[in-house]
Amino acid sequence: MARHQQRGFSLVELMVGITVGLIAVAGASTVAVHQLTEHKRLALEAQTQQELRAAGEIMARELRKAGSWGSPELGLWSERNPAPRVNPYTELIVGDDGRRIEFSYSKSLDMAADFGTDNATVPAEDERRGFRLKGQQLEFKLGSGGYQPLTDPATLVITHFEAKVIATSSQLASRCFKPCEPGNDQCPPQLTVRSVQIAVEGHARHDSQVKRRLNFTTRLSADQLSGSCQA
User: Running DSSP on this structure, what letter comes out for residue 21?
Assistant: First the structure.
């Protein structure tokens, strides 16, 4: 009697093949999930870095103008200005343990003006600026409009903001024609150069492990002059 040859896979071979296939699919799925997670993390890192950088650029630009006067010639003695005035925009306030900084500058900085046009004695309300940490976001003070959001808490959580003022003073005795009399603490005049150090930390709203830190120092363009030479 003739024997029939068996063709195809046995049950054991079929199960082994299915197992190997499942292992390969699981490995491919793991790689795909890892790549998707890594892509999402990189996108969050880029978004976090971009938001912090944009906020830093706005802060640096505004701080550079802090204390700037539209008519600085009024602060110097001349025949046209025999009674020099004090720059009304020099005040720089750091409060709330460094979490808030406020300043002002003249709104006529970019305007061509005649001698002494900006004769303000105090900053106008719409000339006041500032930055602060409020909750989980940075806020920007825009004059009479008050504080407005500078960062979006829906995408970026700010965990730290600190502002520090660094001031360096030097005497201008060589600029005076007469020596200072003893006891005159206003002579010689002093020039104070001020800089502001800013530190900001934050993380992505949807992944607290995506953290970024921003540090920069900006020198104020308006130096502070105090005192006077001996009359």
Answer: H
